[in-house]
Design a protein that fits this description.
By secondary structure, the protein is an alpha+beta fold. It contains 23 helices and eleven strands. The chain has a five-stranded mixed sheet with strand order 7-6-3-8-9. A two-stranded antiparallel sheet has the order 1-2. A two-stranded antiparallel sheet has the order 4-5. InterPro entries: CxC2_KDZ-assoc, KDZ.
């Protein structure tokens, strides 16, 4: 070894590999994801290009030695060979993972007291932003495995410790938690077709959301889809050394459904981390949110959530394009070998981010400083168009989106249509009646099916009974006191204005209730159109996914069945709109209204719309979109109502512009704090390695002290370069804000 020759085996070695060779391969495989097999074959070609078969085959020995070389290199580079944990008491012991120097790391680059003294309006400056995502390319094939092949890193890298993870996972029940959001239909189709012949279907990972660093023990294997239990474990392990954090924000493309019972799950499964998860808030990444339903877009968009800066949440997606290059070789490896290899690639990704963190933050700061004056000027100019009392009224509104007890989402970033809750409850009851009618029409009359019908009728009985009592108190009429039977409740006609003749409505003095119900059904019609548009987009996306990814008769059959389900959702949305318009006409709605037009079944056909999931094709420019594609506001309004609608649109624009400006201001403050933390991290590393270089125990071992001094010079250079870049970035500019 002192001759810089690495033996292929410990006992009676016959072959050795030079350190230069192993270092060269390590560099090649990190930068290009070249496999040991390809590198070994290249060496044989270099040795004898005419007859490479004459060169001895040392492939298996090379795999074994290069794997140990990776491990020893990571131990040296991380400082574990110098027992650095004696001086770095913050964070996780024995870890080899390159940690993010810009994220708040309590006790390392920011003091706990500083975070504790920060006000709620400074939350964004000290929030740990993290993101979660699954990758289905990093699979491992179902093949003969060596049970003795365990990871050398043993949970000290990016992967959680496999033995602990598998033991915990075996205690959990498999549940279907793909959720109900339309965006998650793609997840269901992936579960159907993507995991053929794979014992491990991919990984789910936790990164820091703003800088893209994999977190220690934040990666776990998936066996089928992105089940919550697996993401929970990855989140639990990645945050296990973050107990001093005051604020944490998670970006996850299925946050809408994942968050529903997150705190309850952690209280039951990981009680030691339950308090930490109470500090967690979340959002859906900015690109993914566009494919979610409107309610998700209102509740979980980074664009509208305060104290999130301009965090997009999509950075983790950029990681996979790099790591996927290794999937061809890692899917063939044994379990431990695969973990060690991916740990090395992920840690190298962190190191590359570490090298460029100062220039990245400087560039981001320059961009936001260039844009911020224009955003402020434009917002101030728009604000001056309105009376001061109107602006004050808007300012008094709660900016945070929320969901009320009726699961209706309220957001200042969306136009508001007032709903009379009494009529709203009546329409909800009619929807429940239709649901029971569908159950009754089902031909499967087994006991479970009949129990569903009986339970639905009992619930409906109590709800209708309470609603009728409210109706009797508000609109006295002798018919309201008639006793009800639980049998065939779904066929009872509720005394809503839409179910009465014009004469009956007049005699019961239901004019006000009629207007309220008309507005509600108008909203229902718009909801139907919105759902139809989303259903068409979802169907088109999955058709393309099937065409590009599904191979084989079995997967194709299952995919076709799933597409039929999506098609039925499209039909159901069209029926919802037609039913709403039919009721509107009974209530006196203008049949010639240009916005809510008659809809035939052919209007639901996906062929009527361009498929935005695929590139434009020949004939798209001549194809007209369906009339309902861009319906934006209710028609048939009076002049006064149009004026109110115009003010409502201005209010929405004002809040959206304010959110953009506020996010830019928050981003500026976040970046300034990140600059401080980056410099503090580099100084801390330089001080720690300097101390290690001075320790007698390292001076007594040849090379240890000199390597520590090399690390001191490296981190000192990082620190000096960062200070220079940040100083230049924060120099005041003389440019004037744009008038546009």
């Amino acid at each position: 070894m002192r001759a810089q020759l690495f033996p292929s085996t410990i006992a009676l070695p016959q072959t050795a590999f030079t350190f230069d060779l192993l270092s060269d391969f390590h560099t090649h495989t990190l930068t290009s994801k070249k496999s040991p097999y390809d590198y070994h074959e290249a060496l044989r070609q270099l040795t004898n290009s005419a007859f490479p078969q004459d060169v001895p085959d040392q492939y298996h020995e090379f795999c074994r030695v290069s794997r140990v070389w990776r491990y020893l290199s990571s131990q040296r580079q991380s400082g574990q060979a110098h027992e650095i944990d004696r001086l770095l008491k913050e964070g996780r012991f024995h870890t080899i993972v390159v940690r993010c120097p810009a994220c708040p790391d309590v006790g390392f680059n920011v003091e706990k007291a500083e975070i504790e003294l920060a006000g709620e309006d400074e939350k964004h400056k000290y929030t740990l932003f993290i993101s979660a995502d699954g990758n289905y390319r990093l699979q491992r094939k179902a093949k003969n495995d060596d049970p003795d092949d365990v990871a050398l890193n043993d949970g000290h890298g990016c992967f959680a410790r496999a033995q602990d993870y598998q033991k915990w996972l075996s205690s959990q029940d498999e549940v279907d938690d793909t959720g109900i959001c339309a965006h998650l239909c793609a997840v269901r189709l992936q579960n159907i077709v993507k995991f053929r012949n794979a014992v491990i279907s991919g990984v789910v990972a936790i990164q820091c959301a703003r800088h893209g660093f994999f977190m220690s023990q934040g990666v776990v294997d998936l066996s089928k889809g992105e089940a919550y239990a697996r993401t929970d474990y990855a989140l639990y392990r990645s945050l296990s050394d973050q107990s001093d954090q005051r604020w944490i924000m998670l970006s996850y493309d299925i946050w809408c459904s994942y968050s529903a019972k997150l705190k309850k799950r952690f209280a039951e499964l990981f009680p030691e981390s339950a308090e930490l998860v109470q500090k967690l808030r979340g959002a859906v990444p900015k690109m993914h949110i566009k494919n979610h339903i409107v309610a998700c877009q209102q509740l979980w968009s980074f664009n509208y959530l305060r104290n999130s800066g301009q965090t997009c949440g999509e950075m983790i997606e950029t990681t996979w394009s790099d790591l996927n290059q290794a999937s061809g070789s890692t899917r063939e490896q044994n379990d431990g070998h695969r973990h060690d290899t991916l740990d090395d690639f992920m840690n190298y990704w962190n190191w590359k981010k570490f090298q460029g963190i100062a220039s990245t933050i400087s560039e981001d700061y320059a961009k936001v400083m260039k844009r911020l004056p224009t955003l402020k000027a434009n917002f101030d100019q728009f604000t001056k168009r309105f009376p001061a009392e109107l602006i004050q009224e808007w300012k008094s509104s709660d900016r945070d989106p929320y969901r009320d007890n009726n699961k209706v989402v309220h957001s200042v970033y969306e136009a508001t249509i007032t709903k009379g809750m009494f009529s709203f409850k009546g329409i909800e009851l009619e929807d429940q009646q239709l649901a029971i009618l569908e159950l009754v029409a089902d031909f499967s009359k087994d006991n479970e099916h009949l129990n569903h019908i009986s339970a639905g009728r009992r619930t409906l009985y109590h709800r209708i009974n309470n609603w009728m009592k409210m109706y009797a108190m508000s609109y006295l009429h002798p018919d309201n006191s008639k006793p009800m039977s639980e049998d065939e409740l779904e066929k009872i006609v509720l005394p809503l204005p839409s179910n009465l003749t014009q004469l009956s409505r007049a005699s019961r003095k239901l004019d006000s209730l009629t207007r309220t119900e008309l507005k509600l059904w108008e909203g229902q019609a718009h909801d139907g159109l919105a759902e139809l548009g989303m259903a068409i987009k979802t169907y088109n996306f999955n058709v393309k996914f099937k065409k590009d990814n599904v191979v084989g008769q079995g997967p194709n059959t299952r995919a076709e069945m799933f597409l039929r389900t999506l098609n039925s959702e499209k039909v159901r949305a069209g029926q919802k709109y037609r039913q709403a318009r039919k009721v509107l006409l009974r209530l006196g709605f203008d049949p010639h209204d240009p916005t809510l037009r008659p809809m035939d079944e052919k209007d639901e056909a996906t062929e009527q719309s361009k498929n935005t999931s695929i590139p434009s094709k020949l004939g798209d420019s001549k194809k007209s979109e369906p009339w309902f594609w861009n319906v934006s506001h209710p028609g048939g309004l009076t002049e006064q109502e149009k004026k109110k609608w115009s003010v409502e649109m201005d209010r929405v624009k004002w809040f959206r512009d304010k959110a953009v400006r506020d996010c830019a201001e928050e981003e500026k403050e976040i970046l300034e704090e990140e600059m401080k933390r980056v410099v503090a991290s580099f100084r801390k590393y330089a001080d720690v390695w300097s101390h290690l270089a001075e320790e007698q125990r390292n001076k007594d071992v040849p090379g240890k002290a000199s390597y520590a001094l090399h690390k001191v010079a490296l981190y000192t250079r990082f620190c000096d370069d960062a200070e220079r870049l940040f100083h230049n970035a924060r120099k005041p500019t003389t440019s004037e804000p744009s008038s546009s």
